[in-house]
Write a structure and sequence with these properties.
36% helix, globular
């Protein structure tokens, strides 16, 4: 999927609904839905990551969440980039308890997950920010993340609509963060930037994700 725009760091809500940029994300989400039988599995977990840092990576995760919510799907967007979080600022919400706080809880209940979610200005799109303890990725222990996943699943099981949980992570080549998350989600999308992401970076990131048996469902190419 190739997505082109003059400004790849803006939210879809800044664009005309009929723009090529908006249409590209709608097509992307249609492809995600094609690989997801929501009648059989009401919940889909998805990771959006990138080989190396660039601003459009965060926008791609945010815009995928927006178009999913606009299609009627219940969405939880998780900022799992504890190294350089940015989704709370992007959606104009204040810092709040989030993922890093949940990871330090002895018991992660659906009620605790719910208390950390913030409603965005997009109906149906809730944000689980990085939290107040953002920092080194050592917080992302596999067993603690599994408990967070379980808490989110339990919370969404109380709801009737199909739901998607979209995780935004630090770049694959920056550390183990993305690989840990990729091992837990159903699908992973890799964001590449034309003229910025090198062939070597893309190949190395793919190999790293394959080592943890990630389901690499596709690539988003940002033409910037």
């Amino acid at each position: 999927m190739s997505i082109r725009s003059h400004e790849q760091v803006a939210l879809l809500t800044d664009y005309d609904a009929n723009s090529a940029y908006s249409e590209a994300f709608r097509t992307l989400y249609a492809n995600i839905r094609f690989n997801w039988n929501s009648e059989k599995d009401r919940l889909l977990t998805l990771l959006i990551t990138t080989p190396a840092s660039f601003a459009g990576h965060t926008a791609a995760a945010a815009n995928t969440a927006i178009v999913a919510a606009q299609s009627g799907t219940s969405v939880i967007l998780v900022d799992a980039d504890l190294r350089e979080p940015g989704l709370e600022q992007r959606f104009g919400v204040g810092q709040h308890q989030g993922l890093s706080d949940l990871l330090e809880e002895e018991e992660i209940t659906p009620q605790k997950v719910a208390s950390c979610l913030q409603q965005t200005f997009i109906p149906g799109l809730r944000l689980l920010g990085a939290g107040s303890k953002s920092g080194p990725a050592e917080l992302l222990h596999l067993t603690r993340l599994e408990a967070v996943f379980s808490g989110i699943r339990s919370l969404l099981a109380e709801e009737t609509a199909p739901a998607i949980v979209i995780f935004h992570s630090a770049p694959v080549l920056l550390g183990a963060d993305a690989s840990i998350l990729a091992a837990l989600v159903e699908q992973t999308l890799l964001v590449l930037a034309k003229n910025r992401t090198t062939r070597a970076q893309a190949k190395q990131a793919q190999e790293q994700l394959e080592r943890v048996h990630a389901h690499l469902a596709g690539v988003i190419l940002l033409d910037i």
